[in-house]
Amino acid sequence: MFAKSKQQIDKDNSNEFGKIESQELIKTTALENPNTSHNESMIPSRIKSPPSLLSNDLFIKGNLTTAGDIQIEGTVEGNIKANLLTIGQNALIKGEILADEVVVNGKVSGTIKGNRVHLTSSAKVEGDIIHESIAIESGAHFEGSIEKSDNPLAKSITKGPMAVG
After folding, report:
1. In a domain, 158, yes or no
2. What does 89-130 look like in DSSP terms, one character per residue?
3. Is 47 part of a structural domain of the chain?
4. Does any domain span residue 163?
5. pLDDT at 49
6. 161 in any annotated domain
7. Residue 10, exposed/middle/buried by CB under 10 A (0-12, 13-18, 19+)?
8. 61 three-class SS
9. CB atoms within 10 A of CB 106
10. Domains identified in the chain, total number
11. Residues 86, 18 share a domain
């Protein structure tokens, strides 16, 4: 109905080398015949979004879970699960952290489990760190234990004595 014919597209959208702009051709073909298998091409490809930012005046009590990246400048009382977690210099986290990569500039009270963990010189961590690789800058404050693991995100944490039954 509104779609150009393929001949018009070839003529109108050819570049200097005579090639058709492929996305325009796919869109027009899908418009001409909506039952084709080009439905995937109509959905835009997933573009990496910028990190979610929790500002310094924000207080969250509860768990945060995302497949993306988070930058926290405020206070969180709860567990955090993310791809990349950046903890700002004035941020305070009370809870367990699970992330592929963790950069700590502020205060953390709880267990950190990450493939890559980086404590900057302003970091203050009280808790255990389970990691695949770790970097601790001079001046960072850390109280707890450090354990290297090939898969730290899958490692379970056991607190207290285990029941024998």
Report:
1. no
2. TT-EEES-EEEEEEEESSEEES-EEEEEEEE-TT-EEES-EE
3. no
4. no
5. 77
6. no
7. middle
8. strand
9. 22
10. 2
11. no
For every residue of 64-81, which 3-state class applies, written as one string?
A: EECCCEEEECCEEECCEE
Specify whether 86 is located in the same domain as 133: yes
141 and 122 together in one domain: yes
The share of the chain scoring above pLDDT 70, in percent, equals 64
* Sheet of 75-77, strands arranged across: 59-61, 75-77, 92-94, 107-109, 124-126, 141-143
Residues 90 and 134 in one domain: yes
- Could you list the residue range(s) of the whole structural domain that residue 16 is in? 6-42
Contact of 12 with 28, CB cutoff 8 Å: no
Q: Which helix (H) or strand (E) holds 134?
A: strand 129-136
pTM beyond 0.70: the answer is no
d(CA 85, CA 125): 15
How confident is the model over 68-100, as pLDDT tens digits?
A: 999 999 999 999 999 999 999 999 999 999 999
Residue type, 132: E
pLDDT in tens, 38-72: 444 444 445 677 888 999 999 999 999 999 999 99
User: Mean per-residue pLDDT for 10-37?
Assistant: 45
The predicted pLDDT at position 156 comes to 60
Indicate the residue type of 128.
Answer: D
